[in-house]
Amino acid sequence: MAKVLVVTSGKGGVGKTTSTAALGAALAQNGKNVVVVDFDVGLRNLDLVMGAERRVVYDLVNVAHGNAKLHQALIRDKRLENLCLLPASQTRDKDALSEKGVARIIKELRTQFDWIICDSPAGIERGAILAMRHADAAVIITNPEVSSVRDSDRIIGLLDSKTERAERGERVEKHLLITRFDQARAGRGEMLKVEDVLDILSVPLLGIIPESEQVLRASNLGQPITLANPMSAPARAYSDAARRLLGDEVAMNVPIERFNLLNRIFGGRAA
Amino acid sequence: MKIFNLFKRKELPPATAPVARERLQVLLAHERASPAQSNLLGSLKQDILDAIARHVAVGPDAVKVKVDKRNTTSILRIAVDIPGKVNLTKAA
Predict the structure, then answer these.
(1) CB atoms within 10 A of CB B75
(2) The complex's ipTM?
(3) For residue B25, what is the nearest residue in chain A, using CA coordinates?
């Protein structure tokens, strides 16, 4: 049974696209058929983070308008054959996406994939609502910082009111993913603790992604972090989060970088 | 003596995260309550206006609705401006 998952946050720049790519790749690495869908019409970036920017021919808006078939727009990942990307349009404006078109695309994707991961645009406008509209589950990306936590609270309210499930009186399964977390700073009282964020938002925790230079390195290369450097701390955190999404019990911790010689030699070379 | 200052434990800056936590808790308690409340007031106002307009000609700004929040209860205050002298007991 296919599952539609929206990756959302309200605030921009907290790691939605990075997390979509990483979770999508990690679920595919677990043998699932996965499609990642970029809903950020006009400001697409998932193609770039996934390293598929030069392979985009048709996009979400083309398919929504019936100008292209779904299979023409889907881009199969070169590293994982069970991972696909449906890019957003870069040239059209954000109102180019119709609600009916999105509903039809999601319905069709449900017949082909196990996981449909929707990368939401920032904000609480139409684009963000369209991205969450058909979601069965949501991953809320939050940085341990006041503005991000506040915006996450708004998004949680929208998930409970603007989604199809909410309108049917059902619940959208919600998961909190804390990104850019710095254990040492939280320990010194310089950064909100994980428990603080959980207390305030009251959403079950999916994972804690440590702040890491490896994330930028992966996006420079156009590789999801779980593929670029699977042994790095953020990659292990994302892999654990993906396994929790699949229902596995994985002990919650903040992975730290392992500085062993083999990792130094081979860790950075994976391609 | 300055050389000894190098070995003195650097004073830690005061923890700011508890401040962030408290500010968020206060703010979100307020924000979570307000959107629903404003909708409630808006729809209440419209319903009252509709009911009065069925009997007396009143403009859209004739009804003022306000809620005074107390500790355990809230008081709903409704003020309606009706133009001219209206004998409400006679009307039916």
Answers:
(1) 9
(2) 0.83
(3) A200
